[in-house]
UniProtKB/TrEMBL annotation:
Residues 1-24 form the signal peptide. GO terms for cellular component: outer membrane-bounded periplasmic space. One of its GO terms (biological process) is transmembrane transport. Its main location: other. InterPro entries: DctP_fam, TRAP_DctP, TRAP_DctP_sf. CDD domains: PBP2_TRAP_Siap. It comes from the Bacteria. It is found in: Cell envelope. It comes from uncultured Acetobacteraceae bacterium. This is TRAP-type transport system, periplasmic component, predicted N-acetylneuraminate-binding protein. NCBIfam families: dctP, TRAP_S1. Belongs to the bacterial solute-binding protein 7 family. Keywords: Signal, Transport.
Length: 330
């Protein structure tokens, strides 16, 4: 009797193990520094749900917003350390390990939104993302529009000279210094989560970010003027760590790619819609919205585009290809 029980258990064990494995769920951590009321977070949650559904529940993605797992340098390092599986990150931060991918962060690199939109769908961008992947072994899968960056301060910014000597908070990525150098401002790198307090206490005179971010982070509460300099057309990469990517089978890799690109498209469209509407909203909040002539700002920045001492780190051939991309409507 005992022998029959043991044999039956032995025969049942492989089937039970297979069933357990089939129903197993692996949890992944997706980190970013943005607020829960921003489109990036909403679309990350959407993507997490889509991944769960489309993989039959095998992969469960938990999203950690608002620097919960660290600032941008920390979460970028976390890809290699295994503390995060996926991140949103500004291309300037990704450029710390593969400079060419950050080319779009140079001030006035794009003529307008349509130029950026065409670049976002270009062979050049695909090559740059592939180069990042080869360099780091992490997989850059999508580029999301972050918006045109504008300056907030307690005074109007109408000309480059208005920024001379100004203490301007910039992100903790070297390429952002190209803009401050072009206008003579004093760059003050401060972690994203600490910017509001720095503005409130007067540690810095101003900061620069896209309008949806300024609204979400409530920077307008402690600044009187929003100057539409549009000096950087910013974007975010969605990156999956190499270690995590290697754990996916081919079908799941295709699912992750498809879902993350869909999420990127959805977030990009929402950011574009918001930034077109927000100048009027800031005015309704009693803020002064300044619309400077950008030609002087652009003229100050263009000579630095290929200056390595100013932060450039891309071949001239790639720069020329980017500038030659025809604008895409929509």
């Amino acid at each position: 009797m005992l022998r029959r029980i043991l044999v039956g258990a032995a025969l049942a064990a492989p089937a039970l193990l297979a069933a357990t494995r089939a129903g197993a769920q692996t949890r992944l951590r997706w980190a970013h520094v943005y607020e829960t009321n921003e489109p990036y977070h909403a679309q990350a949650l959407w993507a997490a749900e889509q991944i769960r559904e489309r993989t039959g529940g095998r992969w469960a993605v938990e999203v950690f917003p608002a620097s919960a797992l660290g600032n941008e340098p920390t979460i970028n390092q976390g890809l290699a350390l295994g503390t995060v599986d996926m991140i949103y990150t500004g291309v300037a931060f990704a450029g710390s390990t593969f400079k060419p991918v950050s080319i779009g962060t140079a001030p006035y690199m794009f003529r307008d939104y349509d130029h950026f939109s065409a670049y976002r769908n270009s062979d050049l961008l695909r090559e740059l993302m592939a180069g990042y992947t080869r360099q780091t072994n992490h997989n850059a899968l999508a580029l999301t529009y972050y918006g045109e960056r504008h300056v907030t301060a307690n005074k109007p910014i109408a000309r480059p000279e208005d920024m001379r000597g100004m203490k301007l908070r910039v992100p903790q990525a070297p390429l952002f210094l190209m803009f401050t150098r072009s206008v003579g401002a004093n760059a003050t790198p401060i972690a994203f989560a600490e910017v509001y307090l720095a503005l409130q206490q007067g540690t810095v005179d101003g900061q620069e970010n896209p309008l949806p971010t300024i609204q979400a982070k409530k920077f307008h509460e402690v600044q009187s003027h929003v100057s539409l300099t549009g000096h950087i057309t910013e974007s975010l990469l969605t990156i999956v760590s190499g270690g995590t990517w290697r754990r996916l089978n081919d079908a799941d890799k295709n699912t992750f790619q498809q879902v993350l690109r869909e999420a990127s498209d959805r977030a990009s469209a929402e950011i574009r819609r918001q930034e077109l509407e927000l100048p009027a909203w800031f005015e309704s909040q009693g803020k002064t919205v300044v619309r400077p002539d950008r030609a002087a700002f652009r003229a100050a920045a263009l000579p630095l585009h290929n200056d390595a001492q100013a932060g450039a780190g891309w071949p001239r051939e790639q720069y020329d290809r980017l500038q030659a991309i025809a604008s895409r409507q929509g």
